[in-house]
Design brief:
The protein has 282 residues and is α/β, with parallel strands linked by helices. It has a single domain, classed as HUPs (Rossmann fold). It is built from 12 helices and 5 strands. The chain has a 5-stranded parallel sheet with strand order 3-2-1-4-5, sandwiched between helices. Helix 3 links the parallel strand 2 and strand 3. Helix 6 crosses helix 12. The protein is globular and about 50 Å long. Bound molecules: zinc ion (ZN). Zinc ion binds next to helix 12.
Amino acid sequence: MAYEKIENKVRDTIKKYNLFSKKDYVLVACSGGKDSTTLAHILKKLGYNINAITINPSIKARESSSKNIENLRKFCKENEIRLYEYSFKEEFGHTLFGINKILKSKGIDMPYCTICGILKRYLLNKKSKELKADKVATGHVLDDEAESVFMNLLRGNIELLSRLGPISGVKKSKKFVPRVKPLYFCKEEEIISYSKKKKFPVAYERCPYAKSSYREIVRNELIDFQRKNKKTNENIIKWFLQILPDIKKEFEKQGEISFCEICEEPSKNKICNACSIITKIR
Ligand SMILES: [Zn+2]
């Protein structure tokens, strides 16, 4: 019964926001964690045409020993999902730490989390385009989205706010595979309970390198708020979805959305952050 509640929520979200149809080829961005694993399992169960894609930031020197990847391979095999694996080491010639070091030597001090997020999104788009995916589904849950909304609100970054929502991005572009979030209305605790009951081989810890990030600070604040009001994150999302169409419209009207000249991802500058990092490390 509890299973059905979450599965129905996912199915309803996909339909209500028109995330994809059964004709679409969807790649699920998997990390070996509870959220993306649960998402892949539910989409497969609901009969969608999916496979999995994973981007390894090559944190560990011996990539094959990474527990998350091993877990993910096992899960995909058991669920008859094909897994496409890519890594920073193979694609850029460096590990995440190596990239951070090179950037530092050029006077750019960028946190691991920032580099990891930017380059993962970049590879995800590049590879899913090569694999001819119609959509990329990510495991973001309601609490992740509330964090992103709150974080960009605190930073006053309306442009980034306008790119959030169940479908990421603003305008359609041939070079950009839309990213969608079928777990948009699922609470983290629901996913944890689903994943534990199903005994998925997954890690429940958060990335150890994320501890000092700004997102983590915002996350902890929201956990505090939620102790006082359990609906805090739900309320943030409810409010955000009401104002999102207006924010998007405003940006489109002003023609303020521009795209990277190299990869055509939405970008404030002529060359996006990912392409700018890649040129520096090559
Ligand atoms: Zn770019």
